[in-house]
Each structure stands twice: as C-alpha cells, then as structure tokens.
Amino acid sequence: MATGSTDGARAHARAQAAAATIARPEIPPGVEPTLALRIPSGGYANVVLGRGTRVRLSDPSGATCAHLFLLRAESPWERLNVADTVKVPWQAYLSAGHPLLSDQGRVLATVLTDTSGHHDTLCGPTGEARHQLHLAAAKQGLEPRDVGPSIALFRGVRVGADGALAATGNGPAGGAIDLFVHLPVTLLVANAAHPLDDRPTGDLDLIAWAAETFDSPNDDPEYRRAVENTEAAWAAAQHTEVPA
C-alpha cells in the first residue's frame, strides 16, 4: 500500500490497526473489570485506582516477575514503604492478609488472596525494572525521586539460616495475587527479571474491578491499628472545607 500521500498513509495505518491483535487477560466469571491489561516482558503500566478497587495480578505462564510500587494518588509524597510493610506485620513473606503500608503508617492495599506464594520484599528491582518504573511514573507526572524500593511478585526469595538470600523461582502457571485498595493510589508495575533470577519473563496480567468492601483475612492488632489510621485519614480528607 502506497504511503507517499496523506490518504495512502492513513489507509495503511488503518489497515495495520485492523490487523493487530491485542492480547487480553482472561476475565474471572462474574467480574466486570474497569481495567484489563496483558503486559509483555519488558513492559510496564501506570494506573490510578480508586478506594474500594480490587486488583488482580497474575502469572499466566509461570514465568513473569512484577515489580510493584504504590503512591497515594492525591498525595504522592506518601508512598509504599517496603521496610514498614515487612516490619509492622512481623513478616517478610507476603501472603493473604498482609498490608502494603505507606511511610505514614497507613494501609495503601491489603493482600486478599495469593495462589502463587513466590514473592520478594527484600531485594528491590533490577536496573531494568527501575528504569521501567521511572518511565511509568513519568506518565503520571512523577519523577525518579518519587519511586522508592519496590516489591517483586511471582519470583520468590527466602532467607537461609545463615542469612543468605536464595531465589525460589516462580510459582505455578496461573498463580495470582489479589489486592484491595484502601486509599486512591497510583499503581506502577514493571515486568522485568529479578535481581537473583535473570531468566526472561513471561506475560503479566493485570485486572481491576470495583469491590467497595471486603472481609479482611487479618485480625492482628498491628493491622487493625494501621487500618484505623487509614480510615481516619480518609474521613478527614472528605471534610477539608474551610469555614467561612
């Protein structure tokens, strides 16, 4: 098809678009997603999610690695603090009920379910993953300094008795982790290899839908206190009018 004229170039572009196939995640029965993305190896995504959103990240082939970072959407100076996310629940290994805490002691999201069991809160991203996260952040008007250490999903790490870190690879194909969003967040995610596991990654699926409420699988006092802090901050944010 000739592209030497505007009409020809337009026709060519439209033909290419018509022939393109965009891969999409499999949607769970009964779910009406507000977002559904399949992120290829080397790709990234940036999305703003409202309070009450349920997010599912999944590893369809058993080969992906999702480097995840969260910032409070309306106040991006408040962001995921991986150290507190490990310290406050007394647990370095993510599982159902684990809070993803901000640097202000508030719960940005809670892990609802996890069928992978292979995640890492200890190593941070590779240089490639950090570059992708910076690109994702820039699409939201953020700068590299706004992006702190991230969590890696679907490629696990365990600490040995001698303190050494050992990669445990991926969980089963189709493994997924569901998050419930407590405060409006900007979610940044990069699909790139892990610092201790440089194998090429597979596709990463990301879907989100409105959940509004949830039954927390965590009743620990530290978690309840963090949720109370979160709810107080949310309530205060809804009443910010200055009296006349």
Automatic annotation (TrEMBL):
Domain of life: Bacteria
Entry-linked InterPro entries: DUF1989
Pfam family, one: DUF1989
The DUF1989 domain, residue ranges: 38-183
Protein name: DUF1989 domain-containing protein
